[in-house]
Write the structure tokens for this entry.
Amino acid sequence: DVKVTQSSRYLVKRTGEKVFLECVQDMDHENMFWYRQDPGLGLRLIYFSYDVKMKEKGDIPEGYSVSREKKERFSLILESASTNQTSMYLCASSPLAGGNTGELFFGEGSRLTVL
Amino acid sequence: QKEVEQNSGPLSVPEGAIASLNCTYSDRGSQSFFWYRQYSGKSPELIMSIYSNGDKEDGRFTAQLNKASQYVSLLIRDSQPSDSATYLCVGDSNYQLIWGAGTKLIIKP
């Protein structure tokens, strides 16, 4: 089975803190994604990556950055957390390079609260 | 702006009945559609994909796509309480995924 593991299920941080969310997948997938999910808004894409060292902005990249130093690991960084970044963060991977079939495998999610 | 619209619900269906979930999409260029199920507090999981007009059946689930009407649906036959979840409709438009906000389905025993 494909496994996507997110490092933290629940985090509480203070405004201005730097936050790292880590995601590891064990199926050698090329594509990895970071989404946030808020009630009534659906999933919104923050960043994605089709290869190591490669990153592309999604729909809402402001306030976030990412790192993909190894194929299996994709990290989301909040340089200076703000209260409007309180959300559920979902990491996902998919197996096809150069495209997105929509068949994503999700991690369990990281619920971040910024006070 | 490309959109996928779903009624947020909740949609309440008696156990054993057919649950019908619908979504509409704005981008005529969308070629592929996906249905994800998300239990409360859990992450989404893919349950159906459909790539061409018509019906696609998988067990108790049937996905339907009508590109002329820009309409996608998911039918769940013999609904079970374990089907209670939020169902997310997703369109693939030129390798960009467009997510609906989801319909909450409640199956009443």
The mean pLDDT of chain B is 94.
